[in-house]
Amino acid sequence: MKSVDVFRIFNSTWDNSYPDKRLSQLQSLRQTLDSEHHEFFDGMLDAKLAGIQDLATATVVILIHGIQTDGAWQKIVEKEIGSLPHTNVIGLGYECVSPLQLASPIRRAPIEKIKQDIRDARAREPAARFMVIAHSFGSYILSRILPSATDISFERIILCGCIIPTNYPWGHYTRQMAPKSILNDVGTRDFYPVMATFTSFGYGSSGRKGFQNPHIKDRYFDYGHSDFFVPEKKHVETYWKPFIKQGEIIESKWDQEKPKTGITLLMLCHPYIGRTLFYAIIISLAIVLTLYFL
Amino acid sequence: MQAGSTSRLARLVSILVEGEIIRREVVVRFPSGSGITFESYSDLPFLIRDPDRDIDVRVTEENIEASYILVTNEVS
After folding, report:
1. Quick check: A19 and B60 in contact, CB under 8 A?
2. ipTM of the assembly?
3. pTM for the whole structure
4. What percent of chain A has pLDDT over 70?
5. Does residue A20 belong to the interface with chain B, where contact is any CB pair within 8 Å?
6. Helix (H) or strand (E) segment spanning residue B49
7. Do A46 and B14 lie within an 8 Å CB cutoff?
8. In CATH, what is the architecture of A59-258?
9. A160: helix, coil or strand?
């Protein structure tokens, strides 16, 4: 049994028992639990007896990492964002995803794991506002959760190193969100989203050239794939913290200064042209090598 | 860690109790105003005698309250 199950069963017992029987019912329930949950259970009872209510301003910020960073950046974000009042930062992770799995269409396990973790977090804090920061493959996971789990929604979304296809129907899956609630921080030196686009299926280069649609605020930086988390850049403090706190979008100077994207890169970013070129080259090389060695 | 919800507060309290930073006491208040202290919710009886009025009092959520004692303040 997980602590979220204890939370659920506690609340259910509290809500569904008569006040004069409630205490004895809870004592009976407590006896059925593993001892590791007793302190949490007692803490819940403390809070209920003291009449503590969930704050409407309580905020939960979910962090979903990519396959290369293994969540080390989550500690940096946790420290910075967690200093906001009534804000709980939850770093979510999943089993190692190999580059082969990243390239293949078998990506279900991490998506299901993160989906369940978000549901558990929601169950523990039903009144809280939920926000998410997703990096790289984490952004892809988010893009797969939104259409398949309509019970999961967010007040604000921050994407970085994003590999979601640029034609993703955001308007369809985020109807309940206010305008300017989704930020896509783009690194103009980031090649991973481009590579993901032309070497595999289901990904896009939104982390390199932006979504360029009315639902998302694209913001450009002179960054590589994971530079958002370099402490010296103070990106979390400068750009993400105000957005999480009050939805404030700090403009990036690089939006005006960024170099023009070359035609070769734009072709590689195109899901059909880029992929066709890449596989044409691979097949040609394979044929040449085969002929050479035969 | 600031508690913005009951589950967050419960988790914080459980960390502090398990870490022996604080200790919980559960007090049953009598109608006379006095009370008796228990170490845990599991120790609470169904009925308890109010020594001042010499009557049995039923223990319910209405007459119990939790308090915390800083362990480091206690004589070892």
Report:
1. yes
2. 0.89
3. 0.83
4. 95
5. yes
6. strand B47-50
7. no
8. 3-Layer(aba) Sandwich (3.40)
9. strand
